[in-house]
Amino acid sequence: TLDRRFSVAPMMDLTDSHYRNFARHLTKHTLLYTEMITTGAILHGDKHRFLSFANEEHPIAVQLGGSNPKALRECAIICEDYGYDEINLNVGCPSDRVQNNMIGACLMDHPELVAECLAEMQSTVSVPVTVKHRIGIDDRDSYELLHHFVEHVAKSGCSTFIVHARKAILKGLSPKENREIPPLDYATVYQLKKDFPQLEIIINGGIKTIQESKNHLNHVDGVMIGREAYYNPSMLLNIDEEIFLEAPASQTATQALAAFFPYISSQLDKGTKLGHISRHILGLFHGKPGGRKFRQYLSENAHLPTASIKTLELAIEHLNI
Ligand code: FMN
Question: Percentage of the chain with pLDDT > 90?
Answer without folding.
Answer: 95
